[in-house]
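Lab notes, practical 5.
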Amino acid sequence: MEDNEVPYNVREIEKKWQAEWDRTGLFKMKPASPAKKFYCLMMFPYPSGELHVGHGRNYIIGDVVARVNIMNGMNVLSPMGWDAFGLPAENAAIANNLHPEVWTKSKIARIKEQLQAWGVGYDWDREVASCDATYYRWTQWMFLKLFENGLAYKANALANWCPGCKTVLANEQVVGGACERCDTPVTLTELEQWFFKITSYADRLLDDLDLLTGWPEKVKTMQKNWIGRSEGAEINFPVKGKDFRLSCFTTRADTIFGATYLVLSADHPKISELITDACGPEAMKFIESVRRTSLKAQWETEEEKCGVPTGSFAINPFTHEEIPIWIANYVLLEYGTGAIMAVPSHDQRDMDFSLKYKLPIREVVKGRKTVPPGAAYEGEGVLINSGTFSGLESEKGREKIGEYLECNGLGRRTVKYKLRDWLVSRQRYWGTPIPIIYCKKCGTVPVPESDLPVLLPGNVKFQPTGRSPLAESEEFLNTKCPRCSGPGRRESDTMDTFVDSSWYFLRFINPKKEDGPFDVADVNKWLPVDQYVGGVEHAILHLLYSRFITKFLNDIKMVNFPEPFENLFTQGMILKDGSAMSKSRGNTVSPDELVGRYGADTVRLYTLFIGPPEKDAEWSERGVEGANRFLKRVWRLVTENRESLPARVDRGSLRALEEPERVLRREIHAAIKGARDDLERLHLNTVVSRLMELVNACYLYVQSPGVKVTREDKGGAVLREAFEALLLMLAPFSPHMSEELWQMLGHKQSIFMSAWMEHDNGALAQEEFTLVVQVNGKVRARIQLPTGASRQEVEQAALSHPSITAQLKSRPAAKFIHVEGKLLNIVA
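Output from the prediction step:
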């Protein structure tokens, strides 16, 4: 087929329709609309650089969701903003010798330009940036509310320290023991810092995961593991020659008789009192080496287990034996009590440690299966070598031993969590100032709400020195105490950027509100978010912190919902040369060149077709070219045949069709039904596959011998139905071309003001079906049979087929296995 006379001017078409959507306010939420609301949200970006095609997957998927729901008649809210504070933006600014504000705002403008070039639509009237004082004023308000309710406090704590960036890092910012931003090995340091008491919400954060039926199970599992709720007991071990006891948390109190030594964290507060003179030099050297390891590295289960003896001994309160006390790198102060009772027979970490250092091993649980030498049996069983508790099943043993502990003052049953309180202090410049003043007379004083925002000064030297840059600004630090009017000093740390992103989805509802963070009635109308789209890398902390802040706001009657995001979709990464796209790897693909060469519709279509959107996928230039060829086929198909189509289609007249029209109509409605089902599950790549099949069916129809399409016959009506269905389904994926072709078909309003077609069950009904016939699992024949044929008729038709008769010969058919309407397997 020759190229069509109607040129496909990509740049003109895309520019035209982007301007038209802006003019008509296609993506503006209508506050007074009676239509059902749909809040579609994409995780907002860090504006520390430019976007590459890997970033595009998030925004393009979200745009498809928004456009489909606009077509479904919903009042859609699809906003965009900028996670503009934090270490990434500050480091980029330092590297480029610019003030972070100048750098950040230039990148916001650039990324906004890229998003618009992709054709993704947002209600830009609702744009927010976390670095604007109109936003961070309310982040500070959130801090004050948490402080007021006893959920913000200051304390000394160990933290990951990056010597390169000279700041505290959260655990997820440590990769392989190094800073994710500069690759400097991370160490531990003790600082006085601010925390949010997220642990007070641990049970609710865990239990309410059951409410999130629209979340991926893997994300809920990651959150469960991070919270790490463990039911167990604290057992108190007397220390020989000392007047204190060591408390050990265990989930397996039933194994207490097998505890042959204790293991302490290198940071346990009693370490100095336990290390004897003989063990001192080796123990102190080991403690220093552990402290040079990041918290995240210590959590890793594959880390080699090492330790040293303290020289002191504890008394097992059940066996009354003296057992040695060790220090090891596999015990953390952050979990339990920072001390464990080691039961090598029934814990693999303890077994490995015992074998390495030749410590005693005693079996106290008899399992139902044997384990190989060197392996611990960690399952349930019957207690042995356990005094009066021998013979009890493990569960019953835990219950009885728990009762004995409490009755005899030896410990208590309790619950522990892996979750730690949220460390929010950062010793960096580019962040929200913490609204606290220190007064020698009044102590720690919150800034009055009427004095917010505490503005981030613009003339501070922000090169990292290890101290908070704000501590260098006397003009910022020196202030009056709001209580006594005496001299006061401001807090010089800034807040973790996760605080900014923990509530931004609420501010989008009233982004310009000046007397509060949001309007309570409006937020309760629009939240929770109906569909949240973002990377799985934020599956733990961002989502956990957002859930925590929402629950807190629910407690203080600011919101009436317990969870912020009803449905969550986490897209996979787009890879290049087998790795995630990254500037540091030099494997990014710029969207600008591709949009310039092929158009946004092609880039969008390929991004969605590349594979299941929840899985990682490899980027291919040939794939982009294939997507472009497909769109050109659609363009030619519609433009070359549009003059032969009637002005409208009356579905009621599409009955008693000839075979070619009946076949095409079946393809049309199979595509409509399948695409709708796929969209509900966000199986976007299979929607594109269905559209490709429909285009092939349309070409096959118009090129078939004897088919002549005119405005007057039913063939023209069926083909118009095919084109309209095709464009309506294609529109969310490749919106610019779909709008242009929709207009060419004579429609006056935007395609997004037209609802998707409903499939016609009558068109899907087949008069015949193809039966695949197997003999002993091998395909031997394909038979055309009338729809609705009975089992007996199916079996008889198969047995009468010459190929089947030849296969069976003298062997009788012993069994028939049916897959109705598809397959019959004859077992001979």
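Observations recorded by the TA: The mean pLDDT is 91. The first strand starts at residue 37 and ends at 42.
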